[in-house]
Amino acid sequence: MKYFIANWKARITADQALNWSKEFSDKIGADTVLQTELNNDKIRIIICAPYPFLFLLKNRFNNRKNIFLGSQDISPFDEGAYTGEVTAKMLQSTIHYSIIGHSERRHFFHEIEETIGRKIDQACSHDIEPILCIRGLKDKIHPAVKIIAYEPVDAVGTGNNENLQQVIEMKKKLKLAANTVFIYGGSVDPADIKSYTATGEINGFLIGNASLDPVEFYQIIVNSRS
Ligand code: PEP
C-alpha cells in the first residue's frame, strides 16, 4: 500500500476546494489502472483539507475505496469551553486521518510535545488515525502512532527535497517498529517522485504545494508507478 497525502494548508478557498475535488474525481475516474490500484489496496489517497471544507468534500469521496479525508490538526481537548477549537469528536464521522505535529504548527503555533501527545490521544480515542510529522530524531514518537511522516524543515515548501539516501538513513536511525508506515514529505513533485519509489523503503508521501493543483497531485501518483 502506498499513501499519497495532500496537505492544502491554508492556501485554498471553498470554491477552489470544490473545483479541485471535481477535477480530481474526473481524473481518477478516467484512469482504470488507478481504479484497480485503489480497489486492490495498492494506493491510498488522503486529502487533508482545511476544517470547513472537510464537510463540503465528504459527499464527493464518500463511497470511493481508499480515498479518505484528513484534517491538518486536531484539538488536544475532548470538549468544553475552548472557543475556536475543532475537536476529534466533531470530526470523527467525517475524517479517518489527522496530520498532527506539522513543523508549521510547531513553529508558528509553538506546539510542544505535550500538546502533540494530547492531540494524538484525542485522535486515537475517536477512531482517527494520526499522521505524526517529525522533523528529525529530536521529535518524540508517541507509542500509539502507526504513521510517521518524516519532514525535514529545510525541505518543506522550499523546493529543496531531501534525496532518497538521506531519507533512508533517517528511517534507519528512527528504528521504527516493523509495521510503522513511513512517509516522506518535503517538496515532492511530479518530476522527483520517481527517485523515491525505487527501493520500496518509503511507504508514501505527504505533499503540500504540489497537491494544490489536482492535475499535479494526480501526476505524482501516476509517476510513482515503477
Ligand atoms: C507539507 O506541507 O507537509 C509539505 C511537505 O509541503 P511541500 O510539499 O510544499 O514541501
What labels would you give this structure?
alpha/beta, TIM Barrel, eight-stranded parallel beta barrel, 9 helices, binds phosphoenolpyruvate
Written account of the structure:
The chain has an 8-stranded parallel beta barrel with strand order 1-2-3-4-5-6-7-8, surrounded by 4 helices. The longest helix is centred in the N-terminal third of the chain and has 16 residues, at 14-29. It has a single domain (2-223), classed as Aldolase class I (TIM Barrel), CATH 3.20.20. Helix 1 runs parallel beside helix 3. Strand 7, helix 8 (194-197) and strand 8 form a beta-alpha-beta unit. By secondary structure, the protein is of the alpha/beta class. Helix content is 37%, strand content 18%. It has helices at residues 14-29, 32-39, 51-61, 88-91, 103-108, 113-125, 164-174, 194-197, 214-223, and strands spanning 2-7, 43-48, 67-71, 97-100, 129-134, 147-150, 181-185, 204-207. The structure holds phosphoenolpyruvate. Phosphoenolpyruvate (PEP) is lined by residues 7, 9, 151, 156-157, 185-188, 206-210.
The helix/strand class is alpha/beta
Distance between the termini: 14 Å
Q: Helix-strand pattern, N to C?
A: EHHEHEHEHHEEHEHEH
The total tally of domains equals 1
Individual helix count? 9
- Radius of gyration computed on alpha carbons: 17 Å
CATH topology: TIM Barrel
- DSSP, total strands: 8
CATH architecture name? Alpha-Beta Barrel
Find the CATH superfamily: Aldolase class I
